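Annex B. Sample input.
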Amino acid sequence: MAQINVADLFKETRLKLKLNWIAGLDGGNNQLNSEKVTKPSLALIGHLNFVHPNRVQVLGCAEMDYLNSLSIIAMQQAIANLYATDLAAVVVANGEKAPKELISAANTHCIPLFTSPMQSPQLMDLLSHYLKLAMAETTSLHGVFMEVQGFGVLIKGNAAIGKSELALELITRGHRLVADDIVDFFKISPERIEGRCPALLQDFLEVRGLGILNIRALFGDNAVKPTKPLDLIIQLELADALNPMGLDRLNVKTQHEQVLGVDVTKVVIPIAAGRNIAVLLEVAVRNHMLLIRGINATKQFSQRQKQMIQKDSIENAKLATSQPSKIKSRQAK
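Annex B, continued. Sample output.
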């Protein structure tokens, strides 16, 4: 699981969540270990076993009303209960004013204290969504990641096999570039992998002979896309390197490749002189769309072939049974 600290969280979300960092400035390096954002209601009254460490805690209207109803000594004890656990950060939501006792405790324990005018439920949802994406399990793969006909397609293959040239042709045909050379993949759900472009490589595509191209500047904003779920892997292989005897010409069995523990459909396209690889890739994506809808051309062909074989067998059997009767009638005459 990826790591993120409170300072990075503040930097990425402060504008959207309207966060104001008012105390605990020395706690920016506090690490977050969960995407869950919780309310510490039970911790305020001393039930510390219900509070998980290294998480963001949000104080909403109910929690602030409870603190404001207490005497100074009781409030200090409730805040001491809250900070007795290893918190990552505390956010006071709903535009509530943080008591000076809360600010003092945040500075003492080096726990960042933020305020936000947003309603606590919305604030928690947005924080959880960001943390889920930021802390997702990740890996990096070599290849070119494209959006082709709405599907996320990772183009793989050996060096100099033509991945970037293929990507450039696909871009001219209206498809979009996500990342070239290195693609960062994040597991954002049990069955969903999202590909993103590293910040350094954003918008760039390297093509041998042309050098590094700025795809956004050349083809416009619609030619690039920052992220895309991974739907299909296209493996480019030299036709001469493939064993003709080992090829499944009917492609009965669908190939898969695991990325972060998720099986992703894989198609191998042989590269040979005269083959239009861009068209083949587009058709591979369209065929993948049909397979998702339950339309399998290979199975349809096999069923049709089986039906015709059965029909011929029945006709041959009828013909075989009718031949002896014809012979006997001739002998009788």
